[in-house]
Amino acid sequence: MARLIVFSFENMIYRTVLLFFVVYSGVSSFSPFFGGHHAHHHGFMHHRGPHFHRPNPEIDSNEDTLQLVHVLFRHGHRNPDAVSLYPKGPYYNESFYPEGYGQLTNEGKMTEYTLGTELRKRYDKFLGDTWNINYLEARSSDYNRTKMSLQLMLAALYPPKGSQIWSQLPWQPIPFNYVPTSQDKELFPFDACINKYEALMKEITQRPDISKYFNNRYGETFDILTERAERKMDIVQAFFLYVGFYIQEELGYSLEDWTKSVYPEPLHSAAVDMYYIMTNNTEIKSIISGYLLKKILSDTKAKIDNQIQPSQRKMFIYSGHELNVATMLLSLNAYKLSDVPPYGSYILFELHLINGVHGIKLFYQNYKNEEPIQLKLPGCDSFCPFQEFYKLVDEILPKSDEDCYENIA
Ligand SMILES: *[C@@H]1O[C@H](CO)[C@@H](O)[C@H](O)[C@H]1NC(C)=O
Ligand SMILES: *[C@@H]1O[C@H](CO)[C@@H](O)[C@H](O)[C@H]1NC(C)=O
Ligand SMILES: *[C@@H]1O[C@H](CO)[C@@H](O)[C@H](O)[C@H]1NC(C)=O
């Protein structure tokens, strides 16, 4: 059974001590992505981890023009949850997952801590040595794994320095917030806007071109899965099972023989196709990514207009899911996704002031390269003046909150 997580201060310190023990105990070749029992027999998610000690003057240099950063990232490695498994599977029982269904694993903790070190390195000067309450807005989705991921990322972003050293621990608490998923239009529209979202998904999947494509490509796969998992498959259910198979392999739990006919392909392609379905037209984009994008742009505008509150704000941090990362990339039409965004992947929206012009630079870190890759909105340069950026995405910005809550079923 799942161990009860006692959320006490002592427990937190204990965990932090453990974490730093792992970091500093000379496990120098440790990489969150290569370590342990990774299966990775299929190359499509093979990725390099962030790097610990490599200085990179190139990425530091643009700190001079940097005004504000928004970070959207995915949580770390995790256990499967019940919906990503099937009752007759050999590893269905929660007792196979010591932290409990859906929870962050130790490997996941390291991934997120390392993500924080990578961002600390990239924004070292910009962030400064000492933490201040006004610098960050840190927000998580209402999931344990994203909250824990955020705590780990923050631990590495602002380790205590100088006057803020308060104990032997190279850690200080940093607050973050979340709202219940049912109200979280920005990070969990899949629940907050559920009626609208499901109606739009239905409309898209029932379109003749899409349903024909799905039947041809995945019909047989869905039939096999429906029978084995004993529940009706659709693209979303198939996606969940893909995640479950992937994680079981990661954890070293071998898959049943029958899965070979569906996994990794074509299930992997179906999982990626789901992101394209979820962003298949302007209206669904505005529900799925629009509220977060609207917030990002409105905070950016406030900064440009010198109206941002508090005025010292440096960074907005959003701890979410691969769904958030994938749908944002596709909604912006900035990246042709062919994989599930890996654990710890992130998108950066950087506001720069260059020669008197405020503009946005967009980056995506999927660990295929050492550094985040720079993205472009179609129709704009890689440094995209704010007004132009806004004009290009305006059509996917929701006009009101009603768009989310409206019941069009
Ligand atoms: C899961 O395993 C536990 C302990 O091994 C057992 O008590 C429980 O009945 C199992 N649950 C199911 C649904 O098989
Ligand atoms: C989060 O953890 C709590 C226990 O602290 C548990 O009741 C809840 O189901 C978990 N939620 C998720 C989404 O993991
Ligand atoms: C809609 O989904 C289909 C199937 O995944 C995909 O081929 C197509 O490119 C998508 N269209 C858009 C605009 O995303």
From TrEMBL:
Its EC number is 3.1.3.2. The chain crosses the membrane at residues 12-34. It catalyses: a phosphate monoester + H2O = an alcohol + phosphate. Keywords: Disulfide bond, Glycoprotein, Hydrolase, Membrane, Signal, Transmembrane, Transmembrane helix. SUPFAM superfamilies: Phosphoglycerate mutase-like. PROSITE patterns: HIS_ACID_PHOSPHAT_1 (PS00616). CDD domains: HP_HAP_like. It is an enzyme of class 3 (hydrolase). Pfam families: His_Phos_2. One of its GO terms (molecular function) is acid phosphatase activity. PANTHER family: ACID PHOSPHATASE-RELATED, PROSTATIC ACID PHOSPHATASE. Belongs to the histidine acid phosphatase family. This is acid phosphatase. It comes from Sitophilus oryzae (Rice weevil).
